[in-house]
Design goal:
Two copies of one chain form a homodimer.
Chain A lengths: L1 E5 L3 H12 L3 E6 L5 H10 L3 E5 H7 L2 E4 L6 H8 L1 H4 L3 E4 L4 E2 L7 E2 L7 H8 L4 E5 L5 H5 L9 E6 L2 H14 L4 E6 L4 H6 L1 H11 L4 E7 L2
Parallel strand pairs in A: 1-2, 1-4, 2-3, 4-5, 5-8, 9-10
Antiparallel strand pairs in A: 6-7, 8-9
Helix pairs in contact in A: 3-4
């Protein structure tokens, strides 16, 4: 499958490399063609890897991953071009982290809205599925690195899009438990988990952890 | 030990009954002495149970549990009287849930502050330990009702107070894993978990669940 990755940071690179390893053709998009990190990644990742602008990547991809920083996500999608996004599934991994007030970061949208919803509202032509935003990128693409069972969440309005994302998560990335929280408004739940994730990171002294849901029966 | 419970709702009643069953003397406090629910509880719970005003309960308790609705917590503590609170440990179970804008509730304080911090700031004479606010009250007092391991968090500025709360959680309520997140500002983490808890409640169709932290090694 042809897949676009928006963002050249460690999340984008980790997801992109995993998808190439799974046999997909992956184009990494950034603000400018020839971005140093994107070029370096594409050279290292081999013939199925390429890079270009957000618009190049969006035009190329049948499925899109938003791995940009939350603060830049809406601008990146605007730059990708609405015609290139039309009808496509966007897996939104971003979190609305605001580092401008010092550490630990706060959220620049929360409580009665979420970045996932903002993206869906701004780009109704996309089928936005919020997922993978509750863990380190190492865990995202290799859940078996942690012992036992643990969960990844999906939120989105389109059942078909969620089914497609679930397939990538399970058959591609190796997730055993995918919890469908409901429509895109449930992204408020997973984005709100970040303030707890950040404190757990501090308390556990590692970013490589995740949560399991324990219930009766 | 003599323990005060602020609040006559289902959380207060569940915690109070558990503490009586463990052999403690428990006074349930509410706005007025003779509150119908508090009287009914005290009669049912037997000779170690009693009720009175917030001030009566605070004066009686060596340890205090805040089981009031978040929106009423500061007023309840004000009514309890600063002299009665002085130097005592308050286990704050409340959450800043705002039901005024419909369901699901939002949070009336979040992101760059928390109700736990508001209480600690307003009542510096208290040693506030935020805990037990991330699960149903059934699970709070009977963690073994769920299979396997799962966690309860503590946040607070006073190490001695956290040690005392940890002892009640483990030896009293039967918790096996208590995660110390750090000072009272980490209550932002657990209070922010509520928006995810609420969506999980919807997705799992039960309130009797909890989270386990899975990490490497």
């Amino acid at each position: 499958m042809k897949i676009a990755i928006f963002g050249t940071g460690v999340v984008g690179e980790t997801i992109a490399s995993k998808l190439v390893a799974l046999g997909h053709e992956v184009k990494m998009g950034s603000r400018t063609a020839g971005n140093e990190k994107a070029v370096a990644w594409a050279e290292k990742a081999g013939p199925r890897a390429s890079q270009g602008t957000f618009a190049d990547a969006a035009a190329f991809g049948e499925i899109l991953f938003n791995c940009t920083l939350g603060a830049g996500s809406l601008a990146a999608l605007e730059a990708a071009g609405r015609e290139n996004l039309k009808g496509k599934v966007l897996i939104d991994i971003s979190n609305p982290l605001d580092f401008s007030k010092g550490m630990p970061p706060t959220l620049f949208v929360s409580n009665d809205d979420s970045l996932g919803e903002q993206i869906q509202r701004a780009f109704p032509e996309l089928k936005v599925v919020k997922s993978l935003n509750t863990m380190s990128c190492t865990v995202m693409v290799d859940p078996s690195m942690l012992p036992g069972e643990h969960v990844v969440f999906v939120s989105g309005n389109d059942a078909g899009a969620k089914a497609q994302v679930k397939q990538i998560l399970t058959e591609g990335f190796g997730w055993k438990q995918v919890v469908d929280l409901g429509d895109i408004t449930t992204a408020r739940g997973t984005e709100s988990f970040l303030p707890l994730w950040i404190r757990l990171w501090g308390a556990l002294r590692t970013a490589d952890f995740n949560v399991q849901i324990v219930k009766k029966g």
